[in-house]
């Protein structure tokens, strides 16, 4: 870029007095996640003001844990949304992963790690299946993954009962490999007064990796393109199908990670869990600035969206507001955060 | 004359009940400019979409380097060195200029194969500058650019990445006189560099300025396939326009007194009198109906 | 049925007649959410009774009142011989239950609807009064010397769960409510933790389902609170937790028994005209399981029926 | 059109041999709802085969009732979707309408009809508010109505408890006007062996009216346009804002109708219900051929979608399949219906 | 000369940090054709979007019939008799041809004000036929039509509904010679009927054939505002193209030997040599940078 300054075309560019210069600060302001960041700060400030326990540093671990449980899935869901697709099966897929790891190990008396690996294969398989079905049928992903959502829900319940006779998996905490697996998926890290669950770490790492992939890798470029205009992307030579199937598999991978946490944190998994969570992931992504129609968004934003959601959920508790109105507060907070988000973005766009 | 890099034999294509293309034969050679002309809806875009791998043909054979080929996707065509400027430009509106420019052909660097953003921006800027277009902020989404600016990005991209064949579908539609001139010069340069160029246009002047070979489509069929030597500009224009031309038009319009100022009036719906259409206007109307 | 007579003949001829053709079909319709461990036990009880009586059991569940009512309608459509239904949302169920009764299908109620079953003309009722169970829990809290309790509701707006908390509050006024998302364990854990952090005077966490008690144990640890966990309902892991002292006690309403009795009563009614409870509700709870009596239920819990 | 045949342009049109003639039958096949119709027939045939009670004519009432409960809302939700927007608050708005009618009448000791009318005003108000907020904030409707969804959920519970001390409304069946209101919103009609709930009638009437509006009225044209390309519609002079707000209000109206049925069918309303139903409405609309991105679809299709959903739900039950697997069957059936749908449409488009 | 129906005084418009239009003044009279010319990105579309009510201007005054006006929406402009063909056509791709044609101006019949579909199809067919376009199945979605067909629908619609002013933004971009001729003839007919016409084009020939009045924009400013009498075609072309023209271009390209066939070669990325740009090519490039 430095060389370009002396280059004739570049030099002339400076001549067009129509284009006001735009400072680095303003350019930062135009990033898709900036609005949600301001929204997060507003929500944070609000609860700092009204909720005493919110101010206690030690409680940060609880807030981050709540956020990380959403964030780990919000990151791939955001990638998928930027790529123009939905995954309604993301919530139950988490349960499926946890169940299958537990059931496989327990049923066949395997080392827990074998179950964990098989569950990973299964989770990736479900993602790949979603993507394959999408292209095979030409249906919108909303419908395809809705089908998977129902099927997984039924399978979770049916298979668990078939194998264990119960609706929850048996306790596997006495099996080989459980302790080491728990150390990986369900441990805690003490940082001074703050105790962080390992999921917080995974969440941060995932966010960084995904943001890097999205902004600095070829695949990231393809993700934006297939979401923005799949026909144009295909015409210009982007492997649309592979990109989208890969995104579904990324969701599968993170569902597996969440599922493993679920299993090793609680030792058993309830087969009916996970329903309804898919929308929380989507909400986090949208609050974070992802467009529902695809082609625009940010994973950092989605993580901030998860943080907003987590802070709001726990902040209402910390503030001790009347629990009857919990959902109403939640709704108002979410609207508040997103309106701030839009306001900031609009201001930034006008500069 | 070299062997054709691309041959179409009796190729046809239907969209549902519309047979957009029927029994089309065409040869494209490297180092030559092949102009495809024809009315609106004649099937020009359909033809090039087959060549660029976007659509599959329903009949006939396409040969690349003499071998029968069916491109599974545009990516295959591009790997074969064919780059295309589509009529609808194929730009992702929310993506930045440089990301669109390098879409599918990203430059990566280092062991980790990270995107080389600085370099891509530099190249993108340079290539656009060569066409006389400078967009100061290459991070701007292309959706906010004017029609002509977008067109220039698509053209610059195809010229940069075209290795053997460059296809341009009405590249100058949204461009002014000068920009159009630059595009025509680029076409000649690409030919000189030994590429095959397929140039689709409505403008027989433009076509005759650069074309080695002319193909006219009408209602989905090839009605003329001639070399430059066999044709004058007048003949080409006549073939294309059915004997009618800008000259003639201006003659006709002269009767309309261009300088005249009519009495102002408010006109109810549909009361603007329709001009008389010559037989030519209708016989070769879009879709020929 | 060893004293001969018609029953013996039937019992003897039934298996011979068509290699186990069911003697009757019973529709078992609950308001359970899928995958709920409590309802799993109810269902197991129902299945045990069905197996014993050679009954074809058609189990259906839907948490939505209108949908559950429609399930009763489909049972009528299927011309079953008896219906066992939960009346958690009695007003929603009323019309269709009465329709079934009018059509000559015997209906028994279980689990919910202790105040309304009689007026609908339902034959029998098996279950507990949620309010009374809540009051019993409250009384026990008082007796334990608790100062402040947190009542964790895993489904907002659920009448039965609300009644439990309200009952507890009635006999132990220092009870506060919190709503959590029952289908999302990590959020349950975080929510309870946050509440404990907010109000350190809470020294009892009362959950309304066994899996949530086990999660509450983790929350208590996370919040470094000294609160003790108590709960409604049991399952295998919970019984172990009571044994280890992680959970103080559980209010047991014997879900297995509710399911079992509901189905068996229909069989009895069909084959012998018997009515259990003599027109009164048959209460299956509340009873308390704590360290003192946990050994008695332990082995049954291990086999998944308590 | 008759005059046109002899008109020169028209005559020449016949000369273009590229365009194969397309019979009326084929043109019928290209309607958006045709695929779902075939899907419905397939599902119907399947259950006729496997579920004995399905064959009983008398049971048609049950099936139609189940479908009508979805269909009454699927119709306006489909209109809204064609108009390019979502309403996630549609499910709880039904509960809000029922609750408010009951609470207003009960709390102030009014005639039940006064409560009913006030509830209508409230339901329309909620719809209008959704639309207003959409334009005021510039947020996507997914987010705006998500906010309303949470707020209504909280308000339903909070207000009900505030006024009654319970989570359900008191029984109002002894109040003035209840009998007449019940006759309007909760009655049954016997047609030979079939007993139809009045909701079935409302459903059919709504479908016919909405289909008429969509295809034969100016507003219908505008709905397609604002959904297909809101910017283009605005540019060409369509009042985009009024059209969309009107659509949200139509959803509000139907939510009111559903809510009144809920109230007068069951005498009381549970304050926590209705959550999750919004997606069933959207699913019905999508199965019926509505595009999630707007601009294309059919209300008749949405009604058929509701029928498919209703048939599947009850059919699985009638067939006596293992309820553990219920959701899995449901998922497979939905996928089946939509795949048939897409297959038929693709075939039709190729003719 | 009649009083201008539309006056712009010092009108400006910014998109974020881009000042697309600055201090523009313009008069449009009924019974006259006002041509707006200019390079890509000069601000032509922005100008007409202000007039048609799509954008609000950020500076200056717009007067309609002498009264300062701000259109709140395009609908208000249309009620005032202003019909526009936008450069991006403003068609809903999934809607049928006739529905698009009558969008916002539906014909209704009977007491119930039901859509008169037969009549609308008939009119739509007739209006398109008058332009030499016949689409046999008016129920087809416009998304499946060729670029030129779509453009014709947008033009026919504006001409049918324009009551006092018709604005055409590059109406002939996707059209062939004949179709372009038809559009030019329509412009003259509309003028003759007493309408005011604003005609935006890149083509000075087209503009000079029909225009009474010429306005050239450059970098968002009016650089020329002249009556036909004050200008020759040569001057207009020179003003527009900065002294360069098709003739000149063909002269330049003659050096490029149009008939020449180059040796075939495969070319690595970016190796097509850029043509020399004359100073004019760059000084007036899009956005003028
Ligand atoms: N996706 C499609 N579905 C149906 N018909 C189509 C489709 N694309 C093109 N057509 C039809 O095929 C015919 C040829 O279209 P095509 O776009 O190839 O024309 P063209 O020669 O490029 O015209 P133009 O100069 O207007 O761009 C037209 O009648 C058009 O309506
Ligand atoms: N929505 C927008 N947001 C930001 N910038 C815009 C927007 N629309 C236009 N611009 C910018 O405003 C300037 C003028 O654009 P406009 O579309 O009016 O040009 P034009 O004269 O119509 O060009 P063309 O001949 O290429 O259509 C251009 O630099 C363009 O990039
Ligand atoms: Mg074309
Ligand atoms: Mg323009």
From TrEMBL, chains A, D:
**Any coiled-coil regions, as ranges:** none
State the annotated membrane topology for this chain: Multi-pass membrane protein
GO MF terms, alphabetically ordered: transmembrane transporter activity
InterPro entries in UniProt: ABC_transp_permease (IPR001851)
- Name where it's found: Cell membrane
**One cellular component (GO) term of this entry:** plasma membrane
Q: Which UniProt keywords apply?
A: Cell inner membrane, Cell membrane, Membrane, Sugar transport, Transmembrane, Transmembrane helix, Transport
Q: Where are the transmembrane segments?
A: 34-54, 60-81, 88-106, 112-135, 142-163, 194-215, 222-240, 246-267, 279-305, 325-344
A Pfam entry, by short name: BPD_transp_2
Q: What does this protein do?
A: Part of the binding-protein-dependent transport system for D-xylose. Probably responsible for the translocation of the substrate across the membrane.
For this entry, the protein name equals Xylose transport system permease protein XylH
Automatic annotation (TrEMBL), chains B, E:
Picking any one GO molecular function of the record gives: ATP binding
Q: Which SMART domains match?
A: AAA
> Which UniProt keyword terms apply here?
ATP-binding, Nucleotide-binding
Q: Which InterPro entries match?
A: AAA+_ATPase, ABC_carbohydrate_import_ATPase, ABC_transporter-like_ATP-bd, ABC_transporter-like_CS, P-loop_NTPase
Which Gene3D superfamilies is this protein grouped with?
P-loop containing nucleotide triphosphate hydrolases
Specify where the region named Disordered lies, as residue ranges: 253-289
Question: Would I find Nucleotide-binding among this entry's keywords?
Answer: yes
Segments crossing the lipid bilayer: none
PANTHER family for the chain: CARBOHYDRATE TRANSPORT ATP-BINDING PROTEIN MG119-RELATED, SUGAR ABC TRANSPORTER ATP-BINDING PROTEIN
- Name of protein: Monosaccharide ABC transporter ATP-binding protein (CUT2 family)
Q: What is the organism of origin for this protein?
A: Nonomuraea polychroma
């Amino acid at each position: 870029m430095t060389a370009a300054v002396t280059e004739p075309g570049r030099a002339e560019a400076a001549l067009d007095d129509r284009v006001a210069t735009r400072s680095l600060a303003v350019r930062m302001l135009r990033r898709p996640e900036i609005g949600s960041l301001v929204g997060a700060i507003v929500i944070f400030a609000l609860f700092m003001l009204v909720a005493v326990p919110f101010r206690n540093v030690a409680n940060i671990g609880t807030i981050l844990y709540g956020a990380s449980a959403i964030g780990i899935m919000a990151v791939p869901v955001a990638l998928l949304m930027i790529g123009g697709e939905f995954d309604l099966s993301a919530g139950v897929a988490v349960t499926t992963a946890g169940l299958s790891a537990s059931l496989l190990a327990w049923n066949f008396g395997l080392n827990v790690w074998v179950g964990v690996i098989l569950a990973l294969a299964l989770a990736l398989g479900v993602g790949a299946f979603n993507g394959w079905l999408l292209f095979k049928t030409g249906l919108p992903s909303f419908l395809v993954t809705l089908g998977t959502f129902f099927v997984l829900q039924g399978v979770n319940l049916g298979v668990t009962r078939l194998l264990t006779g119960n609706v929850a998996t048996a306790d596997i905490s006495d099996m080989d490999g459980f302790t080491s697996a728990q150390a990986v998926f369900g441990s805690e890290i003490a940082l001074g007064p703050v105790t962080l669950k390992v999921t917080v770490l995974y969440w941060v790492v995932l966010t960084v990796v995904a943001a890097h992939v999205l902004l600095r890798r070829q695949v990231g470029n393809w993700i934006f393109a297939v979401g923005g205009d799949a026909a144009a992307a295909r015409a210009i030579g982007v492997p649309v199908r592979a990109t989208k199937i890969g995104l579904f598999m990324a969701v599968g991978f993170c569902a597996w990670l969440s599922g493993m946490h679920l299993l090793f944190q609680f030792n058993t998994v309830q087969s009916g869990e996970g329903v309804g969570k898919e929308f929380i992931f989507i909400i986090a992504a949208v609050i974070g600035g992802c467009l529902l129609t695809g082609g625009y968004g940010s994973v950092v934003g989605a993580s901030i969206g998860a943080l907003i959601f987590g802070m709001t959920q726990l902040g209402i508790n910390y503030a001790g507001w009347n629990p009857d109105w919990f959902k109403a507060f939640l709704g108002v907070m979410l609207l508040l955060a997103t309106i701030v988000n839009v306001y900031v973005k609009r201001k930034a766009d006008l500069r | 004359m070299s062997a054709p890099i691309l041959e179409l034999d009796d190729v046809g294509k239907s969209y549902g009940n519309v047979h957009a293309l029927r029994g089309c034969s065409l040869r494209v050679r490297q180092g030559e400019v092949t102009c495809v002309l024809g009315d609106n809806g004649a099937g020009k875009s359909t033809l090039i979409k087959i060549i660029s791998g976007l659509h599959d043909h329903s009949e006939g054979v396409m040969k690349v380097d003499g071998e029968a080929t069916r491109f599974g996707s545009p990516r295959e065509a591009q790997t074969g060195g064919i780059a295309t400027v589509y009529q609808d430009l194929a730009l992702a509106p929310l993506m930045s200029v440089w990301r669109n420019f390098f879409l599918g052909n990203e430059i990566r660097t280092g062991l980790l194969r990270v995107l080389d953003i600085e370099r891509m921006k530099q190249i993108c800027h340079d290539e656009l500058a060569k066409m006389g277009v400078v967009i100061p902020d290459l991070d701007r989404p292309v959706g906010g650019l004017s029609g002509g600016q977008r067109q220039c990005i698509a053209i610059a991209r195809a010229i940069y990445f075209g290795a053997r064949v460059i296809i341009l579908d009405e590249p100058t539609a949204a461009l002014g006189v000068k920009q159009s001139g630059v595009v025509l010069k680029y076409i000649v340069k690409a030919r000189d560099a030994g590429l095959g160029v397929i140039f689709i246009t409505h403008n027989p002047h433009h076509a005759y300025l650069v074309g080695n070979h002319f193909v006219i489509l009408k209602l989905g069929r090839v009605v003329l396939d001639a070399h430059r030597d066999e044709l004058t500009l007048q003949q080409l224009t006549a073939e294309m326009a059915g004997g009618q031309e800008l000259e003639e038009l201006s003659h006709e319009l002269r009767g309309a007194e261009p300088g005249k100022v009519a009495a102002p009036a408010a006109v109810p719906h549909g009361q603007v009198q329709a001009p008389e259409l010559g037989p030519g206007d209708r016989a070769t109307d879009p879709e020929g109906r | 049925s060893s004293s001969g007579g018609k029953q013996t003949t039937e019992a003897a001829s039934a298996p011979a007649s068509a290699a186990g053709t069911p003697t009757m079909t019973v529709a078992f319709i609950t308001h359970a959410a899928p995958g709920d461990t409590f309802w799993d036990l109810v269902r197991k009880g129902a299945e045990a009774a069905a197996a014993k009586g050679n009954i074809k059991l058609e189990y259906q569940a839907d948490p939505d009142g209108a949908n559950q009512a429609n399930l009763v309608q489909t049972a009528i459509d299927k011309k079953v011989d008896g219906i066992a239904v939960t009346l958690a949302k009695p007003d929603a169920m009323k019309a269709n239950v009465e329709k079934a009764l009018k059509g000559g299908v015997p209906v028994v109620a279980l689990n919910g609807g202790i105040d309304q079953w009689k007026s609908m003309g339902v034959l029998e009722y098996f279950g507990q009064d949620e309010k009374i169970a809540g009051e019993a829990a409250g009384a026990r809290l008082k007796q334990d010397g608790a100062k402040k309790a947190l009542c964790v509701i895993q489904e907002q707006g659920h009448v039965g769960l609300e009644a439990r908390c309200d009952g507890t509050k009635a006999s132990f006024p220092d009870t506060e409510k919190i709503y959590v998302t029952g289908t999302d364990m990590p959020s349950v854990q975080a929510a309870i933790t946050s509440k404990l952090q907010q109000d350190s005077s809470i020294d009892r966490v009362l959950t309304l389902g066994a899996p949530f008690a086990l999660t509450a144990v983790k929350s208590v640890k996370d919040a470094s609170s000294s609160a003790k966990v108590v709960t409604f309902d049991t399952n295998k892991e919970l019984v172990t937790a009571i044994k280890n002292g992680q959970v103080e006690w559980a209010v047991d309403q014997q879900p297995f028994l509710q399911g079992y009795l509901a189905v068996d009563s229909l069989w009895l009614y069909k084959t012998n005209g018997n009515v259990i409870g003599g027109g009164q509700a048959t209460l299956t709870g509340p009873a308390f399981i704590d360290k003192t009596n946990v050994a008695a239920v332990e082995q049954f819990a291990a086999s998944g029926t308590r």
